[in-house]
Amino acid sequence: AQSVSQHNHHVILSEAASLELGCNYSYGGTVNLFWYVQYPGQHLQLLLKYFSGDPLVKGIKGFEAEFIKSKFSFNLRKPSVQWSDTAEYFCAVNFGNAGNMLTFGGGTRLMVKP
Amino acid sequence: GAGVSQSPSNKVTEKGKDVELRCDPISGHTALYWYRQSLGQGLEFLIYFQGNSAPDKSGLPSDRFSAERTGGSVSTLTIQRTQQEDSAVYLCASSSGTGQETQYFGPGTRLLVL
């Protein structure tokens, strides 16, 4: 079965540190890729998405992600995190051969210390 | 409102009772999805509606789970004879149904089965 893996379950950073969260998936065909964020007490919100074109995509709040097809990866990055980035981050993939549903990674809880 | 809404926000029920969860998608969105977020299983796809097509029920965990979508808009997820393992947050999402698209999530219904 196709799957999505997020290797970091919990990440703790100090403000201004750089962030990279890993996301890998197990499918060699066409994919649509997403990162969602869930702030404490809030619902899932879209950070950024990749459908096609430039593999480096920029999202809201200074986040970006790079699609590397050869590595089946879509890692999320931010050069300098803020305390307000404390949240849970989910990578999600729409596998082209499996309808329109999303398959989610297990999520990464990020805590940013002020 | 402009977003996906769900009701109730919280539901506590006794084992063996039936529950109904409601989702109002974004106006004009033809695609509607149900997911479940639980501690042990993460975010899992349950069921997907697209327009008047037969729903994709491939994610429903058992025949106690069913969903319907009336008039192409509001959807109800029904869980019969609830079990403790059904305790989770049930999330609804909608999308435009036009192709490569983003799913927008509601706030969820937190279900606790005692």
Write structural notes for this entry:
The complex is a heterodimer of chains A (114) and B (114). Chain A is mainly beta and 114 residues long. In chain A, 0% of the residues lie in helices and 50% in strands. Chain A has strands spanning 4-5, 10-14, 19-21, 24-25, 31-38, 45-50, 56-58, 64-68, 73-78, 87-95, 103-104, 108-113. In chain A, the strands form 3 sheets. In chain A, strands 2, 5, 6, 10, 11 and 12 form a 6-stranded mixed sheet that branches. In chain A, strand 7 and strand 8 form a beta hairpin. Chain A is globular and about 45 Å long. Chain B is mostly beta strands. Chain B has no helices and 10 strands. Chain B has strands spanning 5-7, 10-13, 19-24, 31-38, 42-50, 65-69, 75-79, 88-95, 104-105, 109-113. In chain B, the strands form 2 sheets. In chain B, strands 2, 4, 5, 8, 9 and 10 form a 6-stranded mixed sheet that branches. Chain B has a 4-stranded antiparallel sheet with strand order 1-3-7-6, with no helix packed on it. Chains A and B meet through strand 5, strand 6 and strand 11 of A and strand 4, strand 5 and strand 9 of B.
Summarize the structure.
The complex is a heterodimer of chains A (about 110) and B (about 110). Chain A has strands at about 5, 10-15, 20, 25, 30-40, 45-50, 55-60, 65-70, 75-80, 85-95, 105, 110-114.
Mean pLDDT of chain A: 94
Biggest chain contact? A-B, 22 and 23 residues
Question: What letter string, H or E per element, gives the SSE order of chain B?
Answer: EEEEEEEEEE
Count of distinct strands of chain A:
12
Which oligomeric form is depicted? heterodimer
- The helix tally of chain B amounts to 0
